[in-house]
Amino acid sequence: MARATDKVPDWLLERLSAGELAHAQATELRQRLRAQGEEYRLSALSASDAEILSALPPGRIVPEIERRVLCPPIVPDRPDPTACGPCWPCPRSRRAPPAWP
Q1: pTM of the entire predicted model
Q2: Coil, strand or helix: which one is 3?
Q3: What is the DSSP letter of 6?
């Protein structure tokens, strides 16, 4: 169990900010931050999250992430540059999907 004087680690602060903690644990962490005069860390994290979300809105970013997951970039030294990996059908591939036994 952490002592009230222990600094709240960044990863735990991130979870608190994201609302991933149980109510009792969140309350205890907020009290620790207040006692240590470090409430500003939570405020700064929230401001940073808002800034990132305004610059990279999910509606614009999610489709790009999905595209990259489905079809990774072509690697120059691949034997067949039209095949971009195990994704079928792939918009980069001009071949039909392999026949599965």
Answers
A1: 0.59
A2: coil
A3: S
Spatial separation of the C-alpha atoms in residues 83 and 92, rounded to whole Å = 7
| Burial readout 73-97 (b: 16 or more C-beta within 10 A, e: otherwise) | eeeeeeeeeebbeeeeebeebeeee
Give the Cα-Cα-Cα angle 24, 29, 52 (nearest 5 degrees).
Answer: 110
The model's confidence at residue 13, banded by pLDDT at 50, 70 and 90, is very high
Q: How far apart are CA 16 and CA 79, in angstroms?
A: 48
Q: What percent of the chain has pLDDT over 70?
A: 65
**C-alpha span between 83 and 89 (Å, rounded):** 10
Residue 93 has pLDDT above 50, yes or no: yes
Question: Is the pLDDT at 92 greater than 70, yes or no?
Answer: no
Angle between helix axes 23-35 and 39-55 (nearest 10 degrees) is 110
